[in-house]
Amino acid sequence: MSEEPAIEAEGLVKHFGKTKALAGLDLTVPPGTVYGLLGPNGAGKTTAVRVLATLLRPDGGHARVFGRDVVTEAAAVRRTIGLTGQYAALDEYLSGRANLVMIGQLSRLTAKAARRRADDLLGRFDLTDAANRAVKTYSGGMRRRLDLAASLIGNPAVLFLDEPTTGLDPSARALMWDIVRGLVAGGTTLLLTTQYLDEADQLASRVAVIDGGKVIAEGAPAELKSSLGGQRIALTLAVGADTQAAISALKPFATGTIVPNEPDRLLEVPVSAGDGLATEVLRALDAMGVRVSDISVRSASLDDVFLTLTGHKAEEQEEEA
Amino acid sequence: MTALFADDLTTADLTTERGGPAQFLSDVWVLTKRSIARIRNEPETLSDVTIQPVLFVLMFAYVFGGAIGVGGGNYHEYLIGGMLGMGLAQTAPGTAVAVVSDMSTGLIDRFRSLPMSRAAVLTARTIADLLTQVIGAAAIALVGLAIGWRIHTGAGDAIEAFALALLFGYAFTWAGVCLGMVLRSPEAAQQSGFIIFLPLTFISSAFVPTQSMPGWLQPVAVWNPMSSLAAACRHLFGNPNPAALVHAWPAQHPELAVVCWSAAMLAIFAPLAVRLYRGKGR
After folding, report:
1. Do residue B105 and residue A88 have CB atoms under 8 angstroms apart?
2. ipTM surpassing 0.90, yes or no?
3. Which residue in A81, A105, A136, A161 has the most chain B C-beta atoms within 10 A of its own C-beta, making it the best mutation to test that interface?
4. From CA A91, how far away is CA A104, in angstroms rounded?
5. Domain residue limits at A176
6. Measured between alpha carbons, how far is A206 from B67 in angstroms, rounded to an integer?
7. Global pTM?
8. Residue B156 neighbours by CB under 8 Å, 6+ apart
9. Domain encompassing residue B243
10. What distance in Å separates residue B277's CA from the closest CA in chain A?
11. Could you tell me if A98 and A21 lie in one domain?
């Protein structure tokens, strides 16, 4: 593999006062792929993106975008990147089209090319009807789409998407996912941060889980999920059921510790996925004479992966800058 | 999966400048157009420089004016020089509000991630505000003419007076940019108008001659840049100018004093603003 990485970070460190937002972050993103940066609020995702997008100067370490250093060659890096942050970075009082043309021109397009591409993007992102309306009249989903269009108008080779779907309703989220898939098909490299494992699973070919400003696990989403999270069976026992008997019946299925919540008669069991699993679990419980009021099987959440990886819950640790 | 664009970009679609003054000017132009488009979409934002000073002129002319002596001269003629100073300096809080809003929406982050000139964002803001100041100066002159203010000198002097007023206003705009960079909310920026700019206007000869103030306050008022601008305009328009009788350097050389004050403010606030901008988030 002699191909130059699209993004390469080595030992990035960034402090905000006493808080260490990045504590030696390493990252290698191959070109033409979607790379997910996964972690809870405060893990350092946004800080990492801001350093890579030349908005923050790291206190330590190096980062390069297509071989250009984000500190010493920031101007060159800016010609290759696009950034879509958590908040739509648009002029509320201008129309959608005027925003795109402005950002296109500031991305060094000629006025004519900026107008042509603005119209292309408005059509592609289903915003043509709203093109001449002020952005402040747009819905949340429309803003995100326009914001994404704005970061694409200069044809960036690398696109940073910082929590692109946080706060969006399911249909707006599905539309964003479609757009992202279209981008990768066009050869763009994407670095995507998200709090949602399912989102990384849907979009990214590789993910890095970060916590406390460091990468604590890296790999394809499916690998991470099966090795670290698997599935969960959640049970509500009937009134008067024997919790200890239930736990011993469930032990053979469990891939980790079973944590009982006695007052609410709840049991959560980490399991590895399998056909007919719920039926087998119920049979085993029935054999022990344990009656069950409710059962559900769900995929491991980011919190579960986190619990497995770090032994602590993903809590809010800091305000990200 | 379809590609995003029907056609790829060619070199003909890209501008040729790579940094330097050409890029700076082109970026300033694009961003100034942005601010002008906003004014066109929401003309009510101009009320700060039009309706507000017109109301001030009418209130001072017809409510307070009768009680204020200006050494035997006509108060309506006295008023306009002071009003130009107030009207133009008062745009600074509006500048601060606009800068705070840009900073808080994330738009500035986008600008900072684009291959564009760093100084262009702030420069464009001040140029757009200078254009609104031209509109404001015209509004004040028109209401002045309506209440009996006249220019008694030549066109050259009158042009010099307006040019000084706009230079003065432009210097205040950079102070507004710095305020916007330091303050956290548009509300705080709005408040700065009352906390900083109202005292600055009223402890000056903008509306009353400094001679009527208590002795301890007079030096403050005499050295206030607002007094210098008011005196310079009155002198150049041939309006009543009681400051000519004050034995202090700025009162005797008001035009030069305005140039010095403005140059000093530009020399401090413009580099400071650019520094604050570059340092954002670092």
Report:
1. yes
2. no
3. A105
4. 14
5. 7-226
6. 78
7. 0.79
8. none
9. 74-279
10. 11
11. yes
